[in-house]
Design brief:
The protein has 201 residues and is an alpha+beta fold. The protein has 8 helices and 6 strands. The protein has helices at 5-16, 23-29, 43-49, 69-77, 87-95, 122-135, 151-166, 182-195; strands at residues 21-22, 35-41, 61-65, 104-105, 119-120, 136-142.
Length: 201
C-alpha cells in the first residue's frame, strides 16, 4: 500500500463519495473499526442550513475515528440525546435554531457547565433527530490493515488531505476553507445554555 497521503486520500475520496448509509442505519450498521467518515446533505437541506456555499454532492463534514466508527458516529453524531457530545450535532442544531425552534440548555442540567458544549431538551433533540434522519447520509472508509499501528497519525494525515480537497463547511480545524461564522452561530445556543434555569415545580 502506498503511504503517500495525497494518493491514499484520493482513493479514500472515491470510496467516500460512492456509497452512503442513512442516518438511521448508521446507528447500527457502521463498522466498529478505525476509519474516516463523511457526512452529506441533500441540496434542499444545504439551503435550510444556510451554508455559505453549496457543496453539491460533496460532504458537509469529514471526521475520523481512531477506534470505532460505530461508536463515534452511530452512537454519537447520529444518536438521539447526544447533542452535548457531538460538535456536528451542535453545529446543525445552531444552524436550524430558528427553523426548528431549538433552544440550548446545559448538556447535564443537574450539573450545569461547559456551556459551549450545549445540549437540547428531549423534545428539541427529537426534532433535530428527525431532521438528521430525513436529510443526512454518511459514508465510511476503513483504515487499511497494513497502514501500521499508529491509527491516529495515519488517519489525521488522510483527514487533512481530504479537508484540503473538499473544504467541507462544518469542519473548522485544519480546514483551509473553514466557515468563520460557524462558531459565532453556535455561540447563540451556548449563551442560551448559560442562561438556562430549571422549570419551577
Amino acid at each position: 500500500m502506498t503511504t503517500d497521503p495525497a494518493l491514499v486520500a484520493a482513493a479514500a475520496a472515491a470510496l467516500l463519495t460512492s456509497r452512503r448509509l442513512t442516518a438511521a442505519a448508521a446507528a447500527t450498521d457502521l463498522p466498529p473499526t478505525p476509519g474516516l467518515y463523511a457526512v452529506f446533505a441533500e441540496l434542499d437541506a444545504q439551503e435550510q442550513l444556510g451554508l455559505p456555499v453549496s457543496v453539491g454532492e460533496l460532504p458537509i463534514y469529514v471526521g475520523k475515528s481512531e477506534t470505532s466508527l460505530l461508536k463515534r458516529d452511530g452512537e454519537t453524531h447520529f444518536k438521539l440525546g447526544q447533542t452535548g457530545q457531538s460538535i456536528l450535532r451542535r453545529s446543525i442544531a445552531a444552524l436550524l435554531h430558528d427553523a426548528l425552534g431549538l433552544c440550548g440548555q446545559p448538556r447535564n442540567p443537574s450539573n450545569p457547565g461547559y456551556f459551549d458544549k450545549f445540549g437540547l431538551a428531549p423534545q428539541h433533540d427529537d426534532a433535530l433527530q428527525r431532521w438528521i434522519g430525513e436529510h443526512l447520509t454518511i459514508s465510511t472508509w476503513l483504515k487499511p490493515s497494513d497502514a501500521g499501528d499508529q491509527a491516529g497519525d495515519f488517519l489525521l494525515e488522510i483527514e487533512r488531505a481530504l479537508l484540503k480537497l473538499w473544504t467541507p463547511p462544518l469542519n473548522e480545524r485544519d480546514n483551509p476553507g473553514r466557515w468563520r461564522e460557524l462558531r459565532k452561530i453556535r455561540k447563540i445556543m451556548a449563551e442560551e445554555a448559560r442562561a438556562w434555569r430549571p422549570a419551577r415545580s
